[in-house]
Amino acid sequence: MAPSVLVVCLGNICRSPMGEAVLTHVGKERGLDLTVDSAGTSRYHIGEDPDDRTIAACRKHNVPIQHAARQVTEEDFRRFTHILAADEANLHSLEQKKPRNATAEVRLWGSYLDNKPIADPYYGGTRDFEECYQQCVKLSNAFLDEVVGK
Ligand code: 4NP
């Protein structure tokens, strides 16, 4: 069965909507019709479009992106097979929010590759968003290699 994946960061406007877009794209390239969504641990940007710099990085690589920011819900822990945290702080927030009847596997996304967090590009510049993009590509491949197979 194809995995259903929720990518999670703090604001759900930079890293996780980019991760959602890239994982969907990489899945399509592999012929997979994945269910992918993203959410934030915070309420800061609920309802907002992805950050302009996130959209620009995806556009540059011809990766479609469309998302309205939302906060993680308890229901997410049952709806998705995998919840992928961008960094350790996000993972900690998720562990605190996780209900007893959760079925999703909740992991640092980087744990599928090199255990590195995705650095928050929000206070950075174009280069940081490009780095974030490249990391999302590598992490998407590492995740799919392990969970779906090469
Ligand atoms: P994200 O980046 O977690 O990758 O979406 C951030 C967006 C907004 C804020 C922090 C990080 N903020 O503090 O508003």
From TrEMBL:
Keyword Transit peptide: no
Keyword field: Cytoplasm, Hydrolase, Protein phosphatase
All residue ranges annotated as the Phosphotyrosine protein phosphatase I domain in the record: 3-146
UniProt GO molecular function: acid phosphatase activity; non-membrane spanning protein tyrosine phosphatase activity
Chief location of this protein within or outside the cell: cytoplasm
Record bears the keyword Hydrolase: yes
Catalytic reaction annotation: O-phospho-L-tyrosyl-[protein] + H2O = L-tyrosyl-[protein] + phosphate
Subcellular locations according to the entry: Cytoplasm
Protein name: Phosphotyrosine protein phosphatase
The species this protein was found in: Wolfiporia cocos (strain MD-104) (Brown rot fungus)
